[in-house]
Amino acid sequence: MCGIVGCVGRDGDTLGTLLSGLDTLEYRGYDSAGVALVNDSLDVVKKAGELDALRAALAGRALDGRVGVGHTRWSTHGPPTDENAHPHVDCTGEVAVVHNGIIENYQTLREELAADGHEFASDTDTEVVPHLVETELAAGADAETAVRAAVDRLEGSFAVAVTVAGVEAVFAARRDSPLVLGVDDDATYLASDVPAFREYTDRVVYLDDGEFARIDADGYAVTGPDGTRHEKPVDTVEWDPEETGKSGYDHYMLKEIHEQPRALRQCLQGRVDELGGRVALDLDADPERVQFVACGTSYHAALYGAALFRAAGVPAGAFYARRGARTLAVTNVVGSTMARECTDALFIRSGPEIGVAASKTFSAQLAALNLLALQAAGPGDTDVRRLVAALRDLPGDVRALLDDTDAAAVAREYVDSDGFFFIGRRLNYPVAMEGALKLKEISYAHAEGFAAGELKHGTLALVTEDTPVIAVVTGDGEAARKTIGNVKEVEARSAPVIAVTDGMSDVERYADQVLDIPDTHPRTAAVLANVQLQLFAYHVADALDRPIDKPRNLAKSVTVE
Ligand code: GLU
Fold first, then answer.
1. What is the pLDDT of residue 515?
2. What does DSSP say about strands 420-424 and 447-451: parallel, antiparallel, or unpaired?
């Protein structure tokens, strides 16, 4: 989850380059940070807390060197303290290591190294690495061979970057955690993700699992586990660095909520044949059974997607984790570990999402899953022409909703509530789940999402006049009628009711507040209802003055099980 940056050969401000790289990786979540600069010796500065704390610790210190590595840590082994922050060094203070992930056999290695007289300064799994490198160097190995030998001893999932005093190079290796090189004429970069060096170059080389890289002033060399040279393709990334700014919004999340019309348009562009009323994905799939595997917000998208496949007669379910089978990644990040490791990928094309809490990527996932289900499984219980038209109108409908929503006013009314319950049926069930998750993530309020009929099987005991119930009711069919029945149940217990509705049922009559969505197809209604819930969560969190883009304890990309 943490961020790794490294650079070699940039004449000028190596430290500044590392720090601005770490700034752009902040979205991944972290609790401490540090840098190492290499010259004849090695300077390491690291601090618990935010990057500002590191900057304060660096103030007045003249660190220079044309080689450096930096790190934002998201603790797994040992609390977030100065000592546990990365980089970690060996006994001589000449080897510095930054690491992302978990070294599973660290305990054995640590005992072995301690028995040989190595002294440890932290609780981390990471610290075994510099000591292993030290041992190899002491036995006469050159820096590259020493790092390779050390990495060979590691078990688990990790990305590491290593520097050695007096050596003008950064060595890196990856197993399961992402690493990417940035290539420029006068410098080479290394990072967990492209934005870290996007300001300097758009040419990138993605490392694959098991690969080892050396970057130095002359460029880079990538080798396989056995040392054979790998010729790697150099990709050009298209994201504009401007896109990662806040563009006048108070938070990235609000900006990203407002980017949804564009994100949806990009997601759907060229994939829907409006005239023919058909979907055209570049995918060859005729599944007998589909299993969605996802976590967090994506799990809610998976519940939605599985329902679409089932409606088309294809058995489908959603799971928190699995192995094997033909795999298709539904993802935003081109070149991401998942995209590269799955058999196929369907990119949702949302543009970078910086806010830790997902917003536009969820909407685009739902849109993409509609395309996928139509293409791979057929229409099921839906009228394809109507759905295709609704998808075409979806970006405009989201725009209309964003331009005219009462979410801020409604949110302010309930800021001090004891807890929130979200209910919905069928496709609105994942929406209710996601609405509750969003509110928890960014406001820290207690919230739970339910299939509407479930509330009375227990949790109704918690419902009072201080626990608003947000009911997602769209259409006027059986699901809407039954959910209105559930609304009455909570109303009878004096709970305030907020209805999110397209106005097709008469749920407004029973609601204290209404958040409207445009009239649309039942499948796209779920997307629009979710946008109201995003705004509701955002405004509750804003009224409570929460750090919306970086909620406590959370990270954008979760790479640790
Ligand atoms: N396991 C390492 C630690 O706890 C690295 C965690 C990370 O990925 O930041 O320090």
1. 98
2. parallel
The atom number, within ligand 1, closest to the CA of 86 reads 10
CB 475, CB 503: distance < 8 Å: no
Handedness of CA 427, 432, 433, 437 (dihedral sign): positive
What does pLDDT average to over the chain?
91
- Residue 2 known to be catalytic: yes
Is residue 181 pLDDT above 70, yes or no?
Answer: yes
Residue tagged active-site, from 46, 232, 440, 556: 556
Residue 19 — φ and ψ, nearest 5°? -65, -40
CB 479 within 8 A of CB 436: no
In what helix (H) or strand (E) does residue 486 lie, and over which residues does it extend? helix 478-491
Output the pTM of the full model: 0.71
Q: Determine which residue's CA is closest to atom 8 belonging to ligand 1.
A: 100
Distance from C-alpha of 328 to C-alpha of 285, rounded to nearest angstrom: 10
Residues 496-508: tens digit of each pLDDT: 999 999 999 999 9
pLDDT tens digits for range 418-455: 999 999 999 999 999 999 999 999 999 999 999 999 98
**Does the beta carbon of 177 sit less than 6 angstroms from any atom of ligand 1?**
no
Q: Please identify which of the residues 2, 46, 267, 438 carries the catalytic annotation.
A: 2
Q: Which atom of ligand 1 is least distant from the CA of 101?
A: 8
Q: What is the pLDDT of residues 354-389, one digit of tens each?
A: 888 999 999 999 999 999 999 888 888 888 999 999
Amino acid at 218: D
Q: Which domains does the chain have, with CATH numbers?
A: 3-237 (3.60.20.10), 244-543 (3.40.50.10490)
Judge whether residue 10 has pLDDT over 70: no
Length of the chain: 561
**Ligand 1 probe mutation, 72, 73, 127, most atoms within 8 A of CB:** 73
Best residue among 103, 125, 127, 559 to mutate for probing ligand 1, ranked by most atoms within 8 Å of CB:
125
Distances (CA, A) of 239 to 199, 448, 553: 10, 36, 28
